[in-house]
Predict the 3D structure of the following.
Amino acid sequence: MPGGGDSPAVLRHIAIIMDGNGRWAKKRMLPRVEGHRAGMKAVRKTISAAGELGIEALTLYAFSSENWRRPANEVADLMGLLRFYLRRELAELDRNNVRLELLGDWRALDSDIVADLDAARSRLSGNSGLIVALALNYGGQDELVRAVRAIAADAKAGMLDPNAIDAAAIEQRLDTASLPPLDLIIRTSGEERLSNFLLWQSAYAELLFVDTLWPDFDRAALEGAIAAFGRRERRYGGR
Ligand code: FPP
């Protein structure tokens, strides 16, 4: 655990709850899908800015396990945009030296999307720049349930002593096991909730709520968030 103190805050891992696509579209009297389409463009800008700014990992909440409750046509629109994004942006992500990680129960998505995700991840696996972690069919409670099941299975198989279960044993079984510790969560559009995002990982993360609607988020907004993070004093429970 870092000791805090006078050292400047180092920002390795940012996660974003990309909220406000629907309101962005409504303000313009456009259908909601246009808000999601504009949100996809903001994803592109934010990934390239994060890479240029030397961030190690950027986690994006693209589809939550609760988003299935939206009207079927909106779910279909979001899945359509994801298909389009994976096919259209793959070469650009590769050029930008991006590596892809996937969080959540993404293998339960449509089989063609699962295949595209697998292919994208393997094509980008040799890259050494920004890690983009897409949270797809992700819920923080579901992630913890899956980790607990894995721990129980290891204990039952005699591979793990229940008394030896500690925070590290849990972290190793979370979807984020290969990512650096989470430093900052940004939620756009003025809502102030975590909405089942990175519940374990947010224990000591800074939370930043900005009024910007997600489709309007860009490099300047990311730089503003990084500057706000730099002004926070992180104590990790110390004084
Ligand atoms: C919230 O806006 C956003 C989402 C539910 C999904 C995020 C999706 C994207 C940014 C586009 C696709 C991304 C990729 C990576 C292909 P909302 O609909 O809840 O907005 P509202 O609260 O204003 O209604």
Remarks:
- Residues 18-23, 36, 39-40, 43, 62, 67, 81-82, 85, 189, 214 surround farnesyl diphosphate (CB under 6 Å).
- The longest strand covers residues 57-64.
